[in-house]
From TrEMBL:
A Pfam family it matches: PUA_4
Reaction catalyzed: uridine(1498) in 16S rRNA + S-adenosyl-L-methionine = N(3)-methyluridine(1498) in 16S rRNA + S-adenosyl-L-homocysteine + H(+)
Domain Ribosomal RNA small subunit methyltransferase E methyltransferase: 76-236
Family: Belongs to the RNA methyltransferase RsmE family.
Major enzyme class: transferase
Domain Ribosomal RNA small subunit methyltransferase E PUA-like: 26-68
GO MF assignments: methyltransferase activity
Organism: Halomonas sulfidivorans
The protein's Enzyme Commission number: 2.1.1.193
Localization of this protein: Cytoplasm
Keywords assigned by UniProt, alphabetized: Cytoplasm, Methyltransferase, rRNA processing, S-adenosyl-L-methionine, Transferase
GO biological process: methylation
Record-given protein name: Ribosomal RNA small subunit methyltransferase E
Length: 251
């Protein structure tokens, strides 16, 4: 793929066809980057396709790219992980969503828990959901993924637990001896992260009753937005596509 900014556009990619960039990316391309006609851009549709394109119009009212080539995207993990993340306030939730996407998560469900201090309803919930989905798309632009993970509407924890069918189900539970003992990569993982105050004893019991196993990340208590970063890194290293190899220095 060519150089140039990488932009998420939910559109059909047809070689020779034109795509109108959404308002936000268009403004960034034309006014911030000050790219003009003929400048290369990279587009991805959020469903797995990438396109090499060139700007054919870069005005204040509209920015249009013409598709030159289409190819399957790269960057998807072979390990599908569904993250159940207790909702936290403001930037902390944005950070959790962003980093989870960078680490290859397949889906995210924000969760209402007993100790969680965020409750969303109606229009406020819809706005938050749209915001988190935009955070996920932006993270894909940065990290090179062509599939934007779905951020599902928030659910009460009990309802999310009842929907789980992944072969490997893990609940982050500090103070336990839980570890990743499985040797073969599972076909799917459900990962449950509690709020800043932790999951209640009854919530942990409910997770265990839903075939979740405890996972400990060491002796230190991690913040709710840090925990998914560490847990997903371990899962991707053990079963996914983080190989942990480092380049050797030349003699």
């Amino acid at each position: 793929m060519s150089t140039g900014p990488r932009i998420h556009v939910a559109a059909d990619f047809i070689v020779g066809g034109d795509v109108v960039l959404p308002e936000g990316p268009a403004r960034h391309v034309a006014r911030v980057l000050r790219l003009g006609e003929g400048a290369p851009v990279r587009l991805f549709d959020g469903a797995g396709l990438e396109a090499r394109a060139v700007l054919v119009e870069a005005g204040r009212k509209q920015v249009v790219a013409r598709i030159e080539a289409v190819a399957p995207g790269r960057g998807e993990s072979p390990l599908p992980v569904h993250l159940g993340q207790a909702i936290s306030k403001g930037d902390r939730m944005d950070y959790a969503v962003q980093k989870a996407v960078e680490l290859g998560v397949a889906a995210i469900t924000p969760l209402y828990t007993e100790h969680g201090d965020v409750r969303l309803k109606g229009e406020r919930e819809a706005k938050k959901l749209a915001h988190w989905q935009a955070v996920a798309a932006s993270a894909c632009e940065q990290c090179g993924r062509a599939v934007v993970p779905t951020v599902h509407p928030p659910l009460p924890l009990a309802e999310w637990l009842g929907q789980r069918s992944e072969p490997l189900r893990l609940v982050l539970h500090p103070g336990t001896a839980g570890a990743l003992e499985r040797s073969e990569p599972p076909s799917g993982v459900a990962l449950l992260i509690g709020p800043e105050g932790g999951l209640s004893a009854s919530e942990v019991e409910a997770a265990m009753a839903s075939d979740f196993s405890p996972l400990s990340l060491g002796p230190r208590i991690l913040r709710t937005e840090t925990a998914p970063v560490v847990a997903l890194s371990l899962l991707q290293y053990r079963f996914g596509d983080l190989d942990g190899s480092l380049p050797h220095e030349a003699d």
